């Protein structure tokens, strides 16, 4: 019996070679497995036997003895996504890196975020250099859970030496960029810089555009349109963007860093592609609010397209319903347990036993829903009106609100998926408060959050309080 058990676990060990690399990384034991001789987690299975040393087996071997127990249970339960042969699971080390990068996104200054997620450094003929992001880098910098590529990180870049002529023509680098980011030539990113590159000034500007509602820009344009002709020049537009940026978390945390070269340059001095796009090569043209809002919409659509393409649409251009819901939950702030329950419910409803999607969501359906989210504040008001009169928020109501408030025609399938995700009790009605709160955070992509831990705001508040207290005490002393 003893030798039969040894033979069984020895055979199992050879079929679970992956255990060795995992255990080796975490250095769980000094002794090796009975068969593979790799450092493994110690699990004594024989004890008290005469003339036999304690034998150490890897976790995979122990799991193999019980056919009802899957190896690496924590990995199985940690991943609710559809199982497929091509799926790669996130290991312990990667999870730690992802958590670290999420903290960088949440609390670091724009300068550090840019230097961490940018992947290219262009060296010019005269020896000067500048760091750039690709559109994919920009998307990664604002998307929680997206891991930075290996060997690229803080001040670690791909260095390219290009002449001015090569930069203008794009050269091989342009082809490399287009292949990597799946960008169409009409993409707004190609109008923002050489080869679609994003400089630090462009990065700050794009974050401002993304984190500022359309209505705020319309008001700012009216404020700084001094002659009332509906147009602003380059200097007036600088005031518009400065005002908008000061109201965002990015603007509150940004400080120019001359040592790293990451300085936000005025539009009139930078001679950037953005200035040329809005005001012409010589900067003499005027910018209308209509053109700027169209730019904001194109930017949002391009980023949404990049995000959609990363979800591996099938040959018909459709993504699975679970992936669409993951897009909605990306910035939700909901707990991990709550998110897993939502994904599991959607997966059980729309996936077959083989893991294939029943129907899928197209990019046009996704874009229509995100255009609907642009009006989420008005949608919230409309939902409140329905509650006042005692009406429930059902699928027909959402379709009607989308049509009348946001001027968007949502497909029945999209609405079904949304209700499956957010209708917790399955009664066919929506808990609009939680839904609206999640959608507001999704619309802002987490950029509305203050980029600090609260310490600086606490110190600032304490300082103001101390000054006011000191002033009141001095006033009381003077009165006495």
UniProtKB/TrEMBL annotation:
Claim: Metal-binding is one of the keywords in the record: yes
Q: Where is the protein found, in the record's own terms?
A: Mitochondrion inner membrane; Mitochondrion intermembrane space
A biological process (GO) of this protein is: mitochondrial calcium ion homeostasis
Q: Which domain of life is it from?
A: Eukaryota
In this chain the EF-hand domain maps to 212-247, 410-445
Instruction: Cite the InterPro entries for this sequence.
Output: EF-hand-dom_pair, EF_Hand_1_Ca_BS, EF_hand_dom, MICU1/2/3
Q: Which GO terms describe its cellular component?
A: mitochondrial intermembrane space; uniplex complex
What CDD domains does this protein's entry cite?
Answer: EFh_MICU
Which family is annotated? Belongs to the MICU1 family. MICU1 subfamily.
Protein's recorded name:
Calcium uptake protein 1, mitochondrial
Protein's organism: Phallusia mammillata
């Amino acid at each position: 019996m003893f030798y039969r058990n040894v033979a069984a676990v020895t055979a199992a060990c050879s079929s679970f070679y992956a255990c060795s690399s995992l255990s080796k990384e975490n250095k769980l034991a000094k002794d090796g497995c009975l068969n593979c001789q790799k450092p493994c987690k110690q699990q004594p299975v024989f004890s008290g036997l005469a003339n036999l040393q304690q034998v150490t087996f890897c976790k995979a071997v122990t799991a193999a003895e019980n056919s009802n127990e899957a190896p690496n249970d924590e990995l199985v339960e940690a991943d609710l996504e559809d199982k497929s042969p091509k799926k790669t699971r996130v290991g312990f080390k990667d999870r730690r890196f992802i958590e670290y990068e999420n903290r960088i996104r949440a609390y670091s200054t724009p300068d550090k975020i840019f230097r961490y997620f940018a992947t290219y450094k262009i060296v010019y003929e005269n020896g000067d250099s500048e760091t750039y992001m690709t559109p994919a880098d920009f998307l990664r910098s604002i998307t929680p859970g997206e891991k930075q590529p290996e060997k690229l990180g803080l001040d670690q870049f791909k260095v390219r030496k290009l002449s001015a002529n090569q930069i203008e023509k794009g050269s091989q680098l342009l082809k490399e960029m287009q292949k990597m980011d799946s960008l169409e030539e009409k993409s707004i990113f190609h109008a923002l810089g050489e080869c679609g590159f994003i400089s630090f000034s462009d990065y700050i500007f794009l974050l401002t555009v993304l984190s500022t509602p359309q209505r705020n820009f319309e008001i700012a344009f009216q404020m700084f349109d001094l002659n009332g002709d509906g147009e602003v020049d380059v200097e007036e537009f600088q005031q518009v963007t400065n005002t908008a940026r000061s109201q965002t978390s990015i603007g509150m945390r940004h400080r120019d860093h001359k040592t790293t070269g990451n300085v936000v340059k005025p539009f009139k001095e930078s001679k950037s592609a953005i200035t040329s796009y809005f005001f012409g090569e010589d900067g003499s043209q005027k910018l209308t609010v209509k053109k700027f809002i169209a730019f904001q919409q194109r930017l949002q659509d391009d980023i949404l397209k990049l995000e959609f393409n990363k979800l591996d649409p099938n040959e018909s251009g459709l993504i699975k319903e679970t992936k669409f819901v993951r897009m909605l939950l990306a910035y939700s702030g909901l707990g991990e347990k709550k998110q897993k329950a939502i994904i599991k419910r959607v997966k059980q409803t729309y996936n077959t036993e083989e893991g294939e999607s029943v129907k899928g969501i197209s990019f046009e359906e996704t874009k229509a829903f995100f255009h609907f989210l642009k009006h989420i504040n008005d949608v919230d008001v409309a939902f409140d009106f329905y509650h006042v009169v005692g009406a429930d928020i059902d699928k027909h109501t959402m379709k009607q609100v989308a049509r009348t408030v946001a001027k968007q025609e949502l497909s029945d399938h999209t609405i079904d998926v949304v209700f499956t995700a957010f209708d917790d009790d399955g009664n066919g009605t929506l808990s609009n408060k939680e839904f609206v709160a999640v959608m507001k955070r999704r619309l802002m992509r987490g950029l509305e959050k203050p980029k600090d831990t609260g310490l600086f705001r606490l110190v600032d508040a304490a300082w103001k309080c101390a000054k006011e207290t000191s002033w009141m005490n001095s006033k009381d002393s003077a009165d006495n």
